[in-house]
Amino acid sequence: MSLTIKDVAEKAGVSVTTVSRVLNNRGYISNETRNNVMKTMEELNYTPNEMARSFLSAKTRFIALIVPTTENPFFGELTFHIEKELAQKGYNLFICNSLNDVDNEKKYLSLLQEKRVDGVIVGSHNINIDEYKYFENKIVSIERELTEGIPIIQSDNYLGGKLATQELIDKGCKRILCIRGDQHMTTPANKRAIAYKDIMEKNSLNYSFLEIPFQLSDEEKQAKVDKLFNGQFVYDGIVAGDDIIAKMCMNSAMKHEIAIPEKLKVIGFDGTKIVRQLSPEMSTIVQPIENLAKKSVEILLALLNEKNVDQVTTLPVKLLPSVSTQ
């Protein structure tokens, strides 16, 4: 069993508060008492952890991040940059993979209340979680509307949907399908589909949607994509909800001998480094993932310092054209 400051306090014959003051170098401590505590820690080979150092300050120096899964390229890259940014600010990251399960997310929230993290960054995609209304810690959200009063950091999803749709139209597409996520979810990403519809109507083109919820497994998503191509496929362009769906569409098109980009043009959304490296031929809308991470940390730390912050922060996206829309 690992040693605690309580063990140090008992052996040194002082209070836990006194040990904490020595660790944090706070408050008046006589040299004799300080030396006694330091000598005891050395004898016990005790290494203070961050929780011990935070005893008096009421700060754990831990921030929790709730995401659907770090296995997803977008959330994996986002997590990397958030952890990097927090480390530079002297904070540690506690990663919670909700696995797209409401009950998992609720369990994490309960655990985080008990473990007393300083704040929480939320990027999960579950809905109907009232616990956020009563959560005591400071929270910021990435690409999700949680509840009133919780700041949102988001990409310019409307601009992204507009750029993606216009790219296909400019390349000659007239029968464009938009693959979107669950429209019952209140999320800024819904604006991509709204932009698609607006641009299609502006160009006097018929619009069409296929819903593939983000919460589905990769196998379930692939099944829906395959069903699309197994039927009477009538489209010459696809605006995909993310790069994973876009790649699934490209793979399925190849299986059905639908040439890309000659017969079908496809554009994704996210533009993570790993996807761009593995599928450089795919056009995509690049989200500012590193800046989303930096801004979420900046706003959360501002909240922890009782500063006023903007309720909504929107960051620009950009079009990265490639072979799939030539």
Could you name the key traits of this structure?
13 helices; 6-stranded mixed sheet; elongated; 3 domains; single chain; 434 Repressor (Amino-terminal Domain); Rossmann fold; 326 residues; 6-stranded parallel sheet; alpha/beta
Description:
The protein is α/β, with parallel strands linked by helices and 326 residues long. The chain folds into 3 domains: 5-53, lambda repressor-like DNA-binding domains (434 Repressor (Amino-terminal Domain)), CATH 1.10.260; 62-154 and 290-315, 3-Layer(aba) Sandwich (Rossmann fold), CATH 3.40.50; 157-288 and 319-325, Rossmann fold (3-Layer(aba) Sandwich), CATH 3.40.50. It has helices at residues 5-12, 16-24, 31-44, 50-53, 73-88, 102-115, 131-134, 157-170, 190-202, 218-230, 243-255, 273-278, 289-304, and strands at residues 62-67, 92-97, 119-122, 138-142, 152-155, 176-180, 208-211, 237-239, 265-270, 283-286, 312-315, 318-320. The strands form 2 sheets. Strands 2-1-3-4-5-11 form a 6-stranded parallel beta sheet, sandwiched between helices. α5 (73-88) packs across α13 (289-304). The longest helix is centred in the N-terminal third of the chain and has 16 residues, at 73-88. It is elongated. The mean pLDDT is 90.
CATH fold call of the largest domain: Rossmann fold
Per DSSP, what share of the residues sits in E-state strands of 2 or more residues?
A: 15-25%
Looking at the overall shape, the CATH architecture of the largest domain is: 3-Layer(aba) Sandwich
Biggest β-sheet strands, sense, barrel = 6 strands, parallel
Please give the count of helices.
13
CATH class of the largest domain: Alpha Beta
Q: What general form does the structure show?
A: elongated
- Mean model confidence by pLDDT: 90
Instruction: Give me the count of strands.
Output: 12
Strand order of the largest sheet: 2-1-3-4-5-11
